[in-house]
């Protein structure tokens, strides 16, 4: 296997589809809010900045559905995730142990210098 | 490129001739550090165990580290009243053919006298070790470990699979390769078990991950840090799928525990999660604990894949920093040996980066040094754990 991803001609080249069964795509570059992208043949505008290596929904994912990456379940959607929306800790939970993160704590306490 | 090594009495060969300074309780740590300070650029590394209560795992770890093939001589620093069995450790090191000296701070007359005594030993040993003969060495004589730390959403796409390719090539060449962190293989246990060379070993691999899942569930946190989420990883399952890629595609030859030396070439899973009830806290409190365990299993070199950007190095065996994220690489190039992030933009294939890693590993036995070695990194931590020995199905003879 020489390729890291599978061909997805329906989505922007800044997005990687790791397995044809996946319902998320991985960002190959940092996407700034307002960027317009093609995702699964539809044009979407990115609401918030999405860093490199993060995920966005390839399709509409209903609440409770498994999130699939590498062709495998990586957790469940805690709320509906719309096509093109950032898919992360705010809308995905582990089916094993809860995820601990400091996301948002900088806004709460002030960023480090 | 000619690989050469230092032949040890047990037949293993080392690619370094490091002097270990080992403190046997935290109370002796400062003296050990001060002893080693003037020699920090001369392959003198401080390791140790902070606890005052006895622990079989910690004593085994210290023994394996002090008799590691990359180690040429050992200085032990004891306060004097701690429970660590310094007599046994010194005996085992001596039996391995290595020069060993124990300083007992209380007997030596305190800090200053201990430091002077220790530095005299190191000066003498360094001069002798620098004259040591080397012998030819083959890739198949190497043991290589892999760990990932500061993982992010790129780790599982570029760095980890590239390390996996390097593993496949090294296993093919006869080397023993060790991957680990069963707590980061949660969700991958069944596909992993299918790669075991016997069904019984497959069952052991699955059981080791189930044990890890139980252990972490009791503790309330997965093997997942805040930075993983910052880097785009949402769950432990997602992190696991990426981490699993480090193992490559070779059949899995065995399951070992910290301090077990792979008996022959092949791919091995290191089970780092303690046995029995949860007793001493998190299995590995940070990446450095995992690196120490990989080295205790005989690893000459450790491949460290990072996305967020780790800077750590090892106390005994060179750590190769493989950077998965191209943005991190640009920011922290001085700390990174391999830029696997270029795979993301099509700047290189997994196979090309895998070959680059393999060549770099072999080069470390032919005069090459890693960035973390050049920078003098020697993070080390050893904490309490307890294990039962591996079962009979864990090392099927191939």
For the largest beta-sheet of chain B, the strand count, sense and barrel status come to: 7 strands, parallel
Number of strands of chain B: 14
Helix content of chain B: 25-40%
Oligomerization status of the protein chains: heterodimer
Strand content of chain B: 15-25%
**Global structural class of chain A:** mainly beta
Termini separation of chain B (Å)? 31 Å
Total of DSSP H or I helical runs spanning 4+ residues of chain A:
1
Uncertain residue segments of chain A: none
Q: What distance separates the N and C termini of chain A? A: 44 Å
Order of helices and strands of chain A: EEEEEEEEEH
Using only C-alpha atoms, the radius of gyration of chain B works out to: 20 Å
Shape of chain A: globular
Structure explained in plain terms:
The complex is a heterodimer of chains A (113) and B (398). With 113 residues, chain A is mainly β. In chain A, 4% of the residues lie in helices and 27% in strands. Chain A is built from one helix and nine strands. In chain A, the strands form three sheets. In chain A, strands 1-2-5-8 form a four-stranded antiparallel β-sheet, with no helix packed on it. In chain A, strands 6-7-9 form a three-stranded antiparallel β-sheet, with no helix packed on it. In chain A, strands 3-4 form a two-stranded antiparallel sheet. Chain A is globular and about 45 Å long. The mean pLDDT of chain A is 92. The model of chain B has no long low-confidence stretch (mean pLDDT 96). In chain B, the strands form three sheets. A seven-stranded parallel β-sheet of chain B has the order 10-11-9-8-12-13-14, with helices on both faces. A four-stranded parallel β-sheet of chain B has the order 4-3-5-6, with helices on both faces. Chain B has 398 residues and is α/β, with parallel strands linked by helices. Chain B contains 14 helices and 14 strands. In chain B, a hairpin with a 5-residue loop joins β1 (4-7) and β2 (13-14). Chain A binds chain B through residues 1-2, 4-5, 16, 18, 26-28, 30, 51-55, 67, 69-70, 72-75, 87-89, 92-103, and chain B through 152-154, 156-158, 161, 186-187, 213, 216-217, 220-222, 224-226, 228-232, 234-238, 241-242, 307, 325-327, 343-345, 349-351.
């Amino acid at each position: 296997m020489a390729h890291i991803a599978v061909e997805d001609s329906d989505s922007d080249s800044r997005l990687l589809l790791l397995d044809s069964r996946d319902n998320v795509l991985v960002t190959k570059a940092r996407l700034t809010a307002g960027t317009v992208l093609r995702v699964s043949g539809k044009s979407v505008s990115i609401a918030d900045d999405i860093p490199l290596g993060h995920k966005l929904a390839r399709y509409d994912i209903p609440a409770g559905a498994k999130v699939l990456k590498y062709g495998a379940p990586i957790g469940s959607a805690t709320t509906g995730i719309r096509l093109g929306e950032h898919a992360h800790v705010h809308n995905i939970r582990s089916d094993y142990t809860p995820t601990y993160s400091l996301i948002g704590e900088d806004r709460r306490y002030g960023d480090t210098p | 490129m000619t690989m050469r090594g230092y032949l040890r009495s047990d037949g293993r060969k080392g690619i370094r001739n490091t002097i270990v300074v080992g403190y046997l309780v935290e109370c002796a740590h400062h003296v050990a550090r001060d002893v080693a300070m003037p020699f920090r650029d001369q392959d003198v590394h401080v390791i140790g165990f902070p606890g005052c209560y006895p622990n079989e795992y910690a004593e085994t770890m210290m023994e394996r580290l002090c008799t590691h093939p990359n180690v040429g001589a050992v200085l032990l620093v004891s306060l004097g009243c701690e429970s660590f069995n310094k007599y046994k450790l010194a005996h085992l090191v001596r039996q391995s053919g290595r020069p060993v000296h124990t300083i007992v701070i209380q007997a030596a007359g305190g800090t200053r006298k201990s430091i002077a005594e220790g530095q005299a030993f190191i000066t003498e040993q360094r001069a002798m070790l620098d004259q040591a003969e080397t012998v030819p060495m083959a890739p198949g004589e190497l043991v290589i470990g892999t760990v990932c730390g500061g993982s992010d959403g790129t780790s599982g796409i570029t760095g980890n699979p590239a390390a996996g390719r390097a593993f496949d090539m090294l296993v093919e060449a006869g080397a023993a390769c060790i991957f680990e962190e069963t707590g980061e293989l949660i969700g991958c246990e069944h596909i992993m078990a299918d790669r075991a060379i016997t069904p019984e070993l497959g069952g052991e691999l699955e059981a080791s991950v189930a044990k890890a899942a139980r252990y972490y569930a009791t503790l309330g946190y997965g093997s997942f840090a805040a930075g993983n989420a910052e880097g785009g990883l949402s769950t432990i399952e997602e992190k696991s799928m990426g981490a699993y890629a480090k193992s490559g595609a070779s059949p899995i030859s065995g399951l070992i525990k910290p301090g077990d030396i792979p008996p022959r070439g092949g791919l091995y899973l290191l089970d780092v999660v303690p046995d029995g009830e949860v007793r001493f806290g998190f299995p590995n409190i940070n990446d450095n604990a995992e690196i120490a365990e990989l080295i205790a299993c005989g690893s000459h070199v450790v491949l460290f894949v990072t996305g967020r950007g780790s800077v750590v190095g090892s106390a005994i065996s060179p750590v190769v920093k493989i950077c998965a994220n191209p943005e991190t690489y640009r920011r922290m190039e001085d700390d990174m040996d391999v830029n696997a992030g270029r795979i993301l933009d099509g700047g290189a294939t997994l196979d090309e980066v895998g070959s680059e890693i393999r060549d770099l590993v072999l080069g470390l036995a032919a005069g090459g040094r890693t960035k973390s070695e050049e920078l003098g990194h020697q993070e080390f931590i050893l904490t309490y754990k307890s294990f039962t020995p591996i079962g009979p199905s864990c090392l099927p003879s191939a």
